[in-house]
Design goal:
- This protein is of the alpha/beta class.
- The chain has one domain: NAD(P)-binding Rossmann-like Domain (Rossmann fold), CATH 3.40.50.
- It has 9 helices and 14 strands.
- Strands 2-1-3-4-6-10 form a 6-stranded parallel β-sheet, sandwiched between helices. It has a two-stranded parallel sheet with strand order 5-13. A two-stranded parallel sheet has the order 7-9.
- Helix 4 runs parallel beside helix 5.
- The chain is globular and about 55 Å long.
């Protein structure tokens, strides 16, 4: 008898890879919904779907990620808190009531960036509204759920999602810019780890199947770097003739503050492969250079 998994946010970059990974395994029956079919901020909507599916686990891959928009716009910040914070809290309550474990994703942006790196036990201190909305989600999950895996990750890259709220990854954006520009300025700050969404999806499946202890986990690909260092690697792997110049973040002023360094240290799980290996696989599968 196949186990049932409910995936929310199935049209996002991570959501679509979660669907692929679980659907590739006949032991799982996948029920996947995006915002047009399920509202993370509505108890009625969540309860209805959870009762229909009666899943062995719920994976919440929804997320508001317009970092600058919610810094400068109060209405957007309220939306960020609903999607990233209070919605996951509602999900956690229903999960507790029905004894269903919840997987929820958070971010390195819950940290202030004053230290070089952060392990699973470091106390969050967000410096942006986006970071505050994600930390709210962490608090809500821990307050209301008994069975949860809270996975912090950073700098996702993979196939662009089909959802309207899904963004292109840094690497896709760089390749696009390089088509018209032989010289690019890239911020040589904000050191953290890239995470390949197919790798994160596989690791999520493993966490659920192996029933590892509930709690907080850091899941990122190996190889901390700045945006500039990653761009250099990208063009080297892609064999593209692009000159990349390191600049300070002040060259590109943005409303939201970013952590200077927010390297997530994973002390609990087997590490994922180096991001350059994952990046090579992504480029080979998606581009003809």
């Amino acid at each position: 008898m196949a186990k049932r998994i409910l995936i929310i946010g199935s049209h996002g970059m991570l959501g679509q890879d979660l669907v692929k990974v679980f659907e590739a395994d006949q032991d799982w029956h996948v029920f996947a919904f995006d915002r047009d079919q399920i509202d993370i901020g509505s108890e009625e909507s969540l309860r209805k779907k959870i009762e229909e599916v009666d899943p062995q686990a719920v994976v919440n891959a929804t997320g508001y990620n317009a970092v600058d928009k919610c810094e400068s716009d109060e209405i957007e910040y309220e939306l960020a808190k609903k999607i990233n914070g209070y919605g996951p809290g509602i999900l956690a309550k229903i999960g507790k009531e029905k004894g269903i474990p919840i997987v929820h994703y958070s971010t390195d942006y819950v940290f202030d960036g004053e230290k070089e790196e952060y392990d699973e036990n470091t106390k969050p201190a967000p410096i942006s509204n986006y970071g505050r909305s994600k930390f709210l989600g962490e608090e809500e999950i821990q307050k209301h759920a008994e069975k949860f895996w809270l996975i912090r990750t950073s700098k996702l890259f993979g196939q662009p999602g089909k959802s309207a709220m899904s963004k292109k990854s840094f690497f896709d954006t760089m390749i696009l810019l390089a088509k018209d520009n032989q010289i690019l300025k890239v911020v040589d700050e904000e050191k953290s780890c890239f995470t390949y969404t197919p790798d994160l999806a596989l690791e999520t499946k493993k966490i659920i199947e192996e029933k590892i202890p509930f709690g907080i986990y850091h899941v990122v690909n190996e190889g901390p770097c700045t945006w500039f260092e990653a761009a250099v690697e990208l063009f080297k792997i892609a064999k593209m003739d692009v000159e990349v110049f390191p600049v300070a973040s002040s060259e590109f002023p943005r409303p939201a503050k970013r952590p200077k360094s927010s390297v997530l240290v994973n002390t609990k799980l087997k590490p994922l492969r180096h991001y350059t290996k994952a990046l090579k696989e992504y480029l080979d599968n998606n581009y003809n250079f």
